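Anyone else keep sequences and structure tokens together like this?

Example one:
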Amino acid sequence: MSRKSNTIYIGKNKSFWDRNRRSGGYLLKRTAGQTAWSIIRGLLIFGLCFMIIQPLLTRFSMGLMEEKDLYDSTIILLPRNVTLDNYRIVAELTDLKTIGGNWHFNALINTLWVSALVSLFQIVATTLVAYGFARYEFRGKKFWFACVIAVIVIPPQTIQPALYMNFANFDVLRIFTLFGANAEGLTFGQRLLSVVDGTGTGLIQLLSGQTLNLRANIGAYLLMSILCMGIKDGLYIYMMRQYFQGIPASLEEAAYVDGCGTLHTFVKIMLPDALPTIASCFLFSFVWQWTDIFYTRLFLPMVSISTYSNQMSTMVTRMSRYFSADASKAVVVPNGRQQQLISIAVLICAIPLVILYIFTQRTFVESLAMSGSKE
């Protein structure tokens, strides 16, 4: 400690200005710097909190307004005419309540169990794959990890047509056209091309005479998740691979010496240490799945399983008939009214995620803080 720092504590029972004089003005400078930094830090934290909370407060306030308040320029945040009827309308538009009937929350319950199940499948698969990338050497390892990075970089919308065609006409081993199945009038080159582009006859069509349509089937979605082709699976593999690489190999070597096998070592040694990171990946997966409309529209249309994200994405098209006195005729809903109801739907969608984060923030923060050697 420097000489100036020592003088701060000499005669600490004396007055501040006396101690500052004895430190040559250093105590005043340090106190002023700490106070200024505390004020700046407080302002930054307040600004960040305001940026996060203000949209929620705005949507909550807008949801309490009657329609005439939306077009009143004198109303900024607090409504003049308070009503809860807007929440009833949104609930009926998003399958949380039967029109004119009881509350059942079907869309939220379906979204909850679908998100939890898909996230569980994703985490199980990506944890095993990440451990393999972190600890084992095999042929083509760099190439396959490059494919993982490509899954992160390439947006899923680019493969939407291929996904649609593949699962609408699902089959395996599409090679039998090459051997003459359903190949009348095709040259050998055309048969070979059908094998390459995936349009040839597969095993299921050969046995049953037709392919399977797995579009409105959650089993297809779970199949993609367990094969690491779900939402952001590449990111989860990358995060857990980096964590497993940071764990010293000496821990596993000690377990092998004690007689543990590979699977036993992974379950008893590696997984408990990686729980915070696994929990964070599960939270990421759950949140992305909760608000996803790309895969849910493809595999879970509303005629199959009613999810909240699907209901919310089609609210505007159903408003025109909802507000019409004649269900066979549509009316024009003002844009302000549309935005009000959409804001309420977004708020309802965000509330479960906020509650989830409140109860899991400690685990989430721990996963971000855990770094460095575990020796």
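And example two:
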Amino acid sequence: MDRLQKILLISLVSISAASWLVSQAFQVEMMSAMMAPYNALSVTLFAAVWTAGMAAMMFPAISPVVLLYNRLIKNASTGGPVMEELQNKGSYSARMVLFVGCYLLVWALTGLALLLAWSLPLNGALAAVDVRTAAAVYGSILVIAGAYQFSPLKSKCLGYCESPMSLFMRRWRSGTAGAVTMGAYHGLYCVGCCWPYFLLMVALGWMDILWMALFAGIIFGEKMLSRGIWVARAAGVGLAITGVMVVLGAVNISAGHNGMIEMDQKMPGIEMQQQEDSMNDNQGAMPSGTDDGGRMSGMDMQDNDGSTEDQNDKMQGMGGMNMQ
């Protein structure tokens, strides 16, 4: 790794770190814009924060691709199909910026498509259904996302991400226009590999920093490990199991509220509390002569005290007559 590549790597990591800070700082605004994208300002805010989030999550994982592209375009040899003369094919810096920029542009458009064509109609449709139906929809989305991890398309797209040389050998284009084309191709393959994670983030409202970090870690493992497909399949199994549990009602997903996942309330401790509440309600329905604890009311106690005193007086009078 030469000096220029070190600078590129440091730049990618630094932009990623700064983007994490931006995503955290505008998390509330991002959620508000996502739940109510009814004007241009909300959509623009969503697109800006979404793009920053993509840079935060994806730049560490795509660093090998960017470094390889850097090495290829600055190589002065013309012996191979992907090598070219630097001085005749446009500005080196411009091509690097265009390659990474077009990659991010694909992800920005993907975010807008998920927001306007999926999340907005889904939110409107689920607002008119009951909780059980909504849980079935959310669970089905999780199951579909998990099943996709085992699909041939996932394996093909991940193969290009794991082996960037195969991407450049297949899709190589020269010059500045080539940087735009290959950046877009790389973005499309990356979307084909990772779209289930981002669909879940938008559809279920899992946009907080913890879910972003979890998915970023999975994506990094998929792209950087030699057998990243097993990371993808392990994630798929987890998503599918969670989806089935949501459909069955064992897990509750509070979509749109920072992606909270809670166990269903049919748990022993909660059932005991519900039984105690039911007993209290039954005691509250007892006759008016007793209060909710089963004790006699104050008026009845006074009546009983008065009758007891009358009986004592009668007994004392009878005792006096016998003595006489």
